[in-house]
Amino acid sequence: MSVPIPVNTQAVAASPTASSLHDRMVAAARRRDSITDIRQPKVLHPIENEGLRLLILENISLDAVARFREQGWHVDHYAKAMSEDELISKIGTYHAIGIRSKTRITERVLKAATKLLVIGCFCIGTNQVDLQAAARTGVPVFNSPFSNSRSVAELVMAELVALSRQLFERSYELRTGIWNKQSKGCWEIRGKTLGIVGYGHIGAQLSVLAEAFGLRVLFYDIIHIMPLGSARQVETLAALLAESDFVTLHVPESPETINMISSEQLSQMKAGSYLLNNARGKVVDIPALIQALQNGHLAGAAIDVFPSEPASNGAPFDDQLNPWASVLRALPNVILTPHIGGSTEEAQKMIGQEVAQALSHYLGYGSTLGAVNFPEVDLRPISAEQANNIRICHVHRNQPGVLKQVNEALSPYNVEKQYSDSKGDIAYVMADIADVSFRELPLLKERISSTDANILTRFLA
């Protein structure tokens, strides 16, 4: 059956899957499991005769791609990122897109994405997406903020040992035929002090691993956090820098963290200390770091992330990309890695599973639990016995009177459950109504979606 769609709406529906996004979503999944053990959920089908199309970029886990295809969705999967212009030319036919860190979803891209319902970032960060513009167009954004925490923490531990033993220098020398066995400037990490900037999931896991190696752990965070083990929180970044033999960064990119480590902060670090950045490329002022390494104030550094990064494997990392690249590459005892902090088989599999579940659960059930830019709303599934029930998912501008209009439209029906929430300028309401005839849907849809506050309305049935 085909339902007319007003100019200011989009509408499709899909089949559901279970979803879990860490603490809240695991709890929600357990609640759903306890229900569906007794009462099987209804498989929701599109009201509009249009199949879901997904665009998956940047060599995302094949397990996630397979999961989407198992649900009968059309998936186009590409190994590389796309430029803004490439996306604009292609995205208009897709209902969902999955990306990693190199593809940028800008406001221009979103304006061209006339059918887009959801964005999945198969990585930790979401700064590659214009989150506010996505919210304004009714598109929630999901990510996987914790799945690669262990992988990043283990990489940091490897870098600590490699830096303190000048491992990369000795290895390079031997590969060029030079035997240079020495102990000068090489240290055990046992008994040294590790300063962690940002005590989130990665920082906390790293804290435990570091103490197992015999390191003393300090951390700085903008909020007060209960430490694990014997770690100790310090009040200021300057205090952490002054006490630490190694400083490792684990903060998001934001206006407050861009160049948070620059000349002033580097001068506050201990002479002969080390800086590690596996967070975001713009957190460190690289020219200032180069100067601190060249004048000997720092003994070494490890950098996994950069302000500008190549769009694909094999592309050059040179001065055209970052004007200081050749100088940085020539410095001794500097570990440079191509943004591989979370690049393990385990992490990518977990990220693929988690984000695929989130996208599927939004497309199929309307749940926005775990969305980074959207009100978080969820309802328990419609059961298989409720054959004449439909779910209404209504994204609208957060202004007075909208719920009154929605409930007036629903007044002829039994509203079995309803939940709404708002975040900033965006509000979202989900409602399940019973005993609905398909003949009534066009008029009902028009009444709900034709209000001046409407952004996007979907019917799942």
From TrEMBL:
Keywords: NAD, Oxidoreductase
Domain of life: Eukaryota
NCBIfam families for the chain: PRK11790.1
Native organism: Hebeloma cylindrosporum
Family: Belongs to the D-isomer specific 2-hydroxyacid dehydrogenase family.
PROSITE patterns named among the record's database cross-references: D_2_HYDROXYACID_DH_1 (PS00065), D_2_HYDROXYACID_DH_2 (PS00670), D_2_HYDROXYACID_DH_3 (PS00671)
The protein's name: Phosphoglycerate dehydrogenase
Keyword NAD found: yes
